[in-house]
Amino acid sequence: MTVFAADYAGASVRPSPNHGERAGGRKPDMIILHYTGMGTADGALSWLCREESQVSSHYFVHEDGRVVQLVPEERRAWHAGKSSWAGETDINSCSIGIEIANPGHPGGLPDFPDKQIEAVAELCRDCGARWNIPPERVLGHSDVAPIRKVDPGENFPWEKLHAGEVGHWIDPTPISGGRFFQLGESGQPIEALQSMLSLYGYNIEITGIFCERTKGVVEAFQRHFRPQLVDGIADFSTIDTLHRLLKALPKYS
Ligand SMILES: [Zn+2]
């Protein structure tokens, strides 16, 4: 396997054979964050470097903050699978994938150490500056593959990343009472909710019916932006947080 020079000065290199050409010569304009979801970091890293796994990422961040590069940034790594964001369905061709060592949901959602999150933030700032990636296009795997994927999970500290000038974040509207929408309901407010989720980038059809897919997308949104309660119910806090995030996007302000 060809050894290559790290694109990020802070990374050591351990090449994975699992990569290809970015379709149409695309350049990365998104960063997708994952957790490994495995018991040990070394086990996860070995898996990403084995041909039989058919998966990889550009970067791997250990719990202690060490960064390893597996695939050159100009190549297409295989981390997102069947995914979609803002109409784009070949997420691997337009993203940089970062695997963050953490046992995830199977391991009871342990915290991400500060050193690790600082390392992820620095890596994202570096990639973001070199590829000119907008903050709102630093996303979780669950954002681009709702229902199918739940990483990096509701315990991932997006707020800390944002304090390190990475990603899009506003403090979620506090959970309170009031009108809410859930599975099985239909009508104009559901249509409005679906429209807002779609405008933000989520892959959702605007049908006016609160179906399983809608519930899954609401959960994905909550996991990232209103992590206190991930229940797939569009309560006032969820809808208001989404509305405020949309208003904070440069293209709509
Ligand atoms: Zn993932």
UniProtKB/TrEMBL annotation:
One Gene Ontology cellular component: outer membrane
Keywords assigned by UniProt, alphabetized: Cell wall biogenesis/degradation, Hydrolase
SMART domains: Ami_2 (SM00644)
Top-rank lineage group of the source organism: Bacteria
GO-annotated molecular function: N-acetylmuramoyl-L-alanine amidase activity
Residue stretches making up the N-acetylmuramoyl-L-alanine amidase domain: 16-153
Name used for this protein in its record: N-acetylmuramoyl-L-alanine amidase
Pfam families registered for this protein in UniProt: Amidase_2, PG_binding_1
PANTHER family: N-ACETYLMURAMOYL-L-ALANINE AMIDASE AMID
Family (UniProt): Belongs to the N-acetylmuramoyl-L-alanine amidase 2 family.
InterPro entries: Amidase/PGRP_sf (IPR036505), Amidase_domain (IPR002502), NAMLAA_amidase_2 (IPR051206), Peptidoglycan-bd-like (IPR002477), PGBD-like_sf (IPR036365), PGBDSf (IPR036366)
EC number: 3.5.1.28
KW Methyltransferase (keyword) present: no
Transmembrane segments: none
One of the protein's GO biological processes: peptidoglycan catabolic process
Catalytic activity: Hydrolyzes the link between N-acetylmuramoyl residues and L-amino acid residues in certain cell-wall glycopeptides
